[in-house]
Amino acid sequence: MAAQTPDPAPEGEPQERHGWKWALNAPALAVLILAASGPLIIVAVYSFLSPGNMGGVAWDFSLDGWFKVFWTRDIFDPENVSWNWGNLTVFWRTVWLSIQTTVICAVLGFPTAWFIATRPPHRRALWLFLITIPFWTNLLIRTFAIQELIRGTGLLNTVMMGLGIVNEPVQMLYSDFAILLGMAYVFLPLMVLPLYAAMDKLDFRLVEAGYDLYASRFRVLWHVILPLVKPGFVAGSILVFIPSIGAYVTPRVLGGGRTMMLGNLIGLQFGQGRNWPLGAALSMLLLIIVMIALIAYLRTVNRDDGGRRG
Amino acid sequence: MAKSFSVRRLPGFGAIALATFVMLYLPIVVLVVFSFNAGSSQSQWEGFSLQWYAAAFANQQVQEVSIRSLWLAAVAAGVATALAVPAALGTTRVSRFPGQTMIYALINQPLMVPEIVTGIALLIVVAWLKVHTGYTGMGYLVLAHTAFCIPFAYLPIRARLETLDATLESAASDLYASPFQAFRFITLPLLVPGIAAGFMLSFVISLDTVVITEFVKSAGQDTLPTYMLGQLRRIITPEMNAIATLFLALSLIFVTAFFLITRKRG
Amino acid sequence: MTQEIEIAGLSKVFGQGASAFRALTDINLSIDTGEFFTLLGPSGCGKTTLLRMIAGFEHPTGGTLKIAGEEMAGKGPNARPVNTVFQSYALFPHMTVAQNIGFGLKMLGKSRSEVDTTVAEMLRLVRMEPMADRKPSEISGGQQQRVALARALAPRPRVLLLDEPLSALDLKLRKEMQSELKRLQTETGITFVFVTHDQEEALTMSDRIAVMSAGRILQLGTPHDIYHAPAERFVADFIGDTNFLDLPVTAISGDVATLTLPGGQSAEARLPAGYLPVIGETVTAVVRPEQAVLGEPGSGMLSGTVASSVFFGTDTHLHLTLSDGQDFILRRQNTADLPVPQPGTPVGITLGAGTLRVLRS
Question: A85-309, superfamily in CATH?
């Protein structure tokens, strides 16, 4: 049909209209734009303004906010530019603690998810529920629970002294270690759940085939199980890494203001008389790191999908 | 007789898993146990007592922030759910339309952006609005919590909608139901579990939200989590354990209800 | 006899431009009041699309559709005097059996007493009275089927549309429901439009059948016509087993052609309406395997040898090779414990009178 004449649309044929779909979404979108997306754009704008005298901003274009993220000028000699080691230390701590948290969650989460996935089906729901409860209970309360446990007069020190392992309380609180412990604790369920989802779909006949073909337990784990549950690992890692990198409550409570993460550094800039454009620039930096992690995740997912189809 | 070979067994995994479960629950259990301690120590058991609960209940400020938290969670979750239902209807089981991906991105944005970034972004906007409108009421917190809760309300409703057989609506219209009647008598009743799940999830999320509240609130608008966050710097008495335990119990009720609702359909 | 449904020049195109798909092309059809009418065809032939257009779920790209003399364009499914029995039944899971059956009447704004009376009547009609207060998930597949029927019949539609309603049932239940459907149709006198891909179902239940392929109606007629006088190769092939023989035409008289069979004998075959081959042209003729009779070598109209045989119990299928090399299947009823002919055995074949038919090419 080279010269196909379009059939005239008969009366009553509803033309595809999308207006009503937008109308149904409009109220939710209005709230989201007002209280989520719109403010983000304002943050981006603020990062290019000058700081006001009493906090806030002056409406003059300036790259100073972004400059101060990485460098400082000597107060007496503005030409003398040096690295802002204070900020750089915080970035490094943030990234390093987030990576460590992800690794710890993976190391503990994999056996835990495997344990749940290999329970009899009617028991699995209960074990899963036990993982999910901490996931939905207040993050602040769980952080508080860790704080109580490891403080100088806490149960852990009392028990260790009682057993004679240490003579005086070990100062665990307000350190990188405390933050790491707290983050691994609060984010662990986020690793277990996607890993479990991947294992739940695992075809155990493939594991049987591995053993049938003379593989040892380790080789089956390495060559059969791990590649098959990789999507769960990737999803779990991203789910742990993203909230870790943006953590605020856990480092604030367990780091005690002495050891800050990026989230706390951002929060600090919005106190009275602080540098809002710097805070805005730091926020954008955090957002960029999150976006990079998300894009890397989506690319992995797409590549795996493509590989399976091809 | 040797133990039979199980392909599901990996050596040491069970032990690590059980240790993980112990680690997950130990801090919470310790927290709860010492809320019933007769003394003020967090490590020495001095006998059972409800004195810290009595103290918590008698504490005017705790009463005030608790009521504010519950009120805020109810309003935010209610509004978020009311907005999420039409949004889910408008993005599920409809032919693809221009802008759909953008709508998804907008709805899910609060899940992607770190809370601290959302928090300071709202702080900037709210500070400006306060100066220019003079309004300093709870409206800002309600709006912020509502926006943050929308994806949590939306996802269970959408999941429920996707499992609904579209033929049921066709059958209704074949049996002389108008589009509104088909929604009223067929879609809506079948959607109720998803709506309830979405509401409960949003309620718990609003109740838990601390960072956004911390940056948006005006003086005298503390919620239970921001009140606790403020108190954690001080000398802590088991009164805080008691408050945390009650808070925990409340979350647990909602989470369990959420689980029961979502499991029933499966 | 009045016409319940009149369809003229109906077409349906899905999509646009290069990806456009013609689901239906120039459908002309009229269905009589009280008729059991079947749309038969393989999956993807457009039969369900046609049914959905009558129901109002799809809108035609061109042509007209009238129900009870009234043009249906622009009317939604809820404004048409037709009801559908869905393939998946689509029973409302949150309503009881009785509430499901009463839904259409409630939507029509009938009074409560009228709804209750009709529901009771319908429950009786499909023999589901004891199940009135059960939920659809608490009854069996066959019972769900009955409820779906009762629900669609309750508002007394002018036409009942059935979209492969028996496909989810097992064989025994399907047979039961076939006679049940026939009974309901006779008792209610409602016009049934039935969609199926099962030729046996179509032959046993229908007053008339429309055989469809690739969005067109190829042949429309009684089950008897469709089986015994298929007009096209597709129809002959789709319904029952058929032998196709390529034979030259030696004479034509009226609608009967004289053909030369392999081996030289002549046979008369009826031509399909409106088709006139020329003398000397080779046409395709069909004869059903059970319309040929096995005989001694040299007897009958055709001769061949046995290539293989398959024993089916009630009958035996003999695969034969005719003298000119064409294949021929013959179905022999096992009226006695007859011996199965060995491969290579020469046989003679007699064709039943009037069984040979010429196809439109």
Answer: MetI-like (1.10.3720.10)
